[in-house]
Amino acid sequence: METRTLSSPPALWPALLRGALASPVRRRRLRDDAAAPATRLVLAEAVVVPERLTAYTHECGFPGTGPLPITYPHVLGFPLAMRLMADRTFPLPVLGLVHTRIAITQHHRLLPTDRPEISVYTAGTAPHRRGTEVTLATEARLGGELVWESRSAYLSRHTRSADAPGAPSAPRTPLPPTAVRARWPLAADLGRRYGAASGDRNPIHLFAATARAFGFPRAVAHGMWTFARCLAEQPDPGGPRYAEAEFKAPVLLPGTVEYAVREYAGVFELRDPRDGRVHLTGRTATSAPPA
User: Fold this and answer.
1) What's the predicted TM-score (pTM) here?
2) Which runs of consecutive H residues, i.e. helices, occur in the chain?
3) Contact 69/60 with Cβ under 8 angstroms?
4) With bands split at pLDDT 50, 70 and 90, how would you rate the model's confidence at 170?
5) How many CB atoms lie within 10 A of CB 237?
6) Burial 157-171 (b: 16+ CB within 10 A, else e)
7) How confident is the model at residue 254 (pLDDT cuts 50, 70, 90)?
8) How far is the C-alpha of 62 from the C-alpha of 139, rounded, in Å?
9) Cα distance between residue 196 and residue 194, in whole Å
10) Which pLDDT score is estimated for 172?
11) Sign of torsion, CA 195 201 207 211?
């Protein structure tokens, strides 16, 4: 795998623009057996910008002081992920990519003053019943030690050939949650606010008009916001931690969602209070599950 080391985060808007311009061509050329690029992007030192961290913790409900939220290294790696997805070797169209699941392992907590090395690479592609799914790996290291890692899957929706292999089984949470702990009204501009805090300005999250271009009736909340907001409701164990989520249905904006848990199992979900439709299922633990 080729490694490219960067001294500063790549600019987001050029990467977004390149990805947007290349998306129509990639969509026409997309095949069921699309291959992942063999490139690893490394940021030698990721610097936490206090103003952006403050905006992020405010939007997601995390404490404004203390260690970084468990989801924040994902934000630090996002410019690298966008640069990777905008590269000419990346096989999927960037516009309209849908985040389908994520798994995070926090080996050690990071502080806002830490400057971890962040690396992002493509862990593989796989067929999905609605198109093709790509998995991106993000890793954070301090002094060469792996302190945080994640695997995120993104779906590019397209028509698959009739003889394409089936999608792999998605991870499932062990038990459904039962107790409602919170209900959150979500404003129409949530996607724009979270996008400003995180840097993720995918058009499906911004406005109804841009979301409709990709098949959504209205703008949808970021999957990472729903995940982070749920984790912000839970007590921080103060050490190693594992968290995973499967994004099962989009959260349309504006709207209302309810957060429910089964505490002894570490399981949680986000659902529509009107009909019980599940938007997200997830679970947390103090260590990663066996491979």
Assistant:
1) 0.87
2) 12-29, 50-60, 72-86, 190-198, 208-212, 223-232
3) yes
4) very low
5) 14
6) bbebeeebeebeeee
7) very high
8) 22
9) 5
10) 52
11) negative
Classified as helix, coil or strand, 69 is: coil
How far is the C-alpha of 74 from the C-alpha of 52, rounded, in Å? 13
Other beta carbons within 10 Å of 100: 20
Tokens 């970084």 found at = 68
Q: For residue 19, what are its two tokens?
A: 């990805």
Burial environment of residue 203 by CB neighbours within 10 A (0 to 12, 13 to 18, 19 or more): buried
Q: Which residue reads 């089984």 in tokens?
A: 169
Region label for 247, one of left (φ > 0), alpha (ψ between -120 and 50) or beta (otherwise):
beta
- Rounded CA separation 201/11 (Å): 13
* Exposure letters 28-64 (e unless 16+ CB within 10 A, then b): eebebebebbebbbbbeebebeeebbebbbebbbbee
In angstroms, the Cα distances linking 123 to 40, 76, 106, 107, 231 are: 10, 18, 19, 20, 25
Q: Which two tokens stand for residue 5?
A: 């080391």
Q: Quick one: average pLDDT of 259-274?
A: 89
- According to the model, what pLDDT value does residue 91 have? 76
